[in-house]
């Protein structure tokens, strides 16, 4: 028996594999956008550094300059904005708006020039300019500090006395009360709008007292003093009758000064001024009848008065402009943000004698 083996045929070769197509290389991501963003950030960082350095330098230099601003006006320079008219002669328009004080708006780092300081600087600039023939003071103020009002009043008198031909005209707007009227008394003529509130001739010392609140909260005053009247108007204790009398003497002295200023400026007898100077306010027609003002009118009427008083028909009406420093630009905004919404007199650092009309709480 023949054993035969049929050889199995070899398996068929595997089908050829499909050709592998190499994958396309991934596109490279552009880094252009990243570099632009980095450059922008670096630029912003650089600007921030420069501004901060500038503010730091300005604050250091500005503090020294501002500290002497109330007394030294010789180095203050203004540019002039012509409001109307032409010619060599000038009439300077000054704006007395707001509470009259030497205390400027302040923040943690910066301080802005006060209203009184600005007014004094502008009056002095006008006094030193031989081409200035008159000052037009536009008043919209409830008054303010006794000293600030008196210093501005005196500066206007000095301007008038520097040349007999020089004149001062006041134009009253919404309010020209108390210290606002005190300053107005330095004018040759006073014009008030028909809707002006003026008067409030008088003096006050105002302070908040928190004794009742302190008693409820358990807050007690501890004061070591050299004399019984040293802590007069201490907000955590009641005012005594003796202290009230002492303060009344101060008020009376300042009141006598106010009455004499009005009598001198308006040509009214002292006794007549005392009758109308009980602190009340007056409308423009009432003030005209009492001789506290000369005329009811508008700015055009005030300018016409300037022409009559100076005998000058051709002049430029100008106002001064001062470039604001970095400390003033940034400090004013920061100061406004940090101030509490309290009445002006409560925000003072100490009780003050004031020529101020204060109808608010």
Describe the protein.
The structure is a single chain. The chain is an alpha/beta fold and 361 residues long. Helix content is 40%, strand content 18%. The protein is built from ten helices and twelve strands. The protein has helices spanning 32-67, 115-128, 146-161, 179-184, 211-217, 241-266, 270-276, 284-289, 299-310, 326-338, and strands at 79-85, 90-97, 132-141, 143-145, 167-177, 189-192, 197-199, 204-206, 281-283, 295-296, 316-321, 352-356. Strands 1, 2, 3, 5, 6, 7, 9, 10 and 11 form a nine-stranded mixed beta sheet that branches. Helix 2 (115-128) runs parallel beside helix 3 and helix 6 crosses helix 7. Residues 57-73 and 331-338 have low confidence and may be disordered.
What is the average per-residue confidence, as pLDDT, rounded to a whole number?
A: 81
CATH homologous superfamily designation: 2-enoyl-CoA Hydratase, Chain A, domain 1
Quantity of strands, as a count: 12
Please give the largest β-sheet.
9 strands, mixed
CATH class: Alpha Beta
* Rg of Cα set: 37 Å
The helix-and-strand class reads: alpha/beta
| Number of separate structural domains | 1
Beta-strand share of residues: 15-25%
Assign an overall shape: flat
Proportion of residues in helical segments: 25-40%
